[in-house]
Write a structure and sequence with these properties.
elongated
C-alpha cells in the first residue's frame, strides 16, 4: 500500500528526474491505478461526489457565514475533485514524463 509519505514525493516539480525516480513514479502510478479497479472504488467516488454536492449546495444556497467559510468550502470541493481525478492526472503526468525522458535520450 502506498503511504502518504511516498505520495508526498510526487508533489515537487519532477523535472530532471533520473531513470530510478521515473521507475518509482511509474510503479506508484500503477499501484494507484490498481486501486481504481478495486470493487470499492466506485463506492468511494460516489461518497466523494456526495460530499462535493452537499458542499456545493451549501455554497450556492448562500449559507456561507463569511468569506472565510466560502473560501474553505470551495477549497474543500476543489480538494475532493482533485482526489477523484488524481489517478488519471498521475497517469497523464507519468506519460508526459516518459515521453520527455525518451526525447532527452535521443
Amino acid at each position: 500500500m502506498t503511504s502518504e509519505w511516498e505520495l508526498r514525493d510526487l508533489r515537487p516539480d519532477l523535472e530532471g528526474t533520473d531513470d530510478a525516480e521515473l521507475h518509482a513514479l511509474v510503479e506508484r502510478a500503477h499501484q494507484i491505478e490498481l486501486l481504481t479497479q478495486h470493487p470499492g472504488w466506485p463506492l468511494f467516488r460516489d461518497y466523494l461526489i456526495g460530499l462535493s454536492m452537499a458542499s456545493q449546495n451549501y455554497i450556492l444556497s448562500g449559507t456561507c457565514k463569511s468569506f472565510d467559510d466560502y473560501r474553505d468550502r470551495t477549497g474543500y470541493v476543489k480538494g475532493l475533485r482533485a482526489a477523484m481525478d488524481a489517478p488519471q492526472m498521475l497517469l497523464e503526468r507519468v506519460a508526459r514524463m516518459q515521453a520527455e525522458s525518451d526525447e532527452s535520450k535521443i
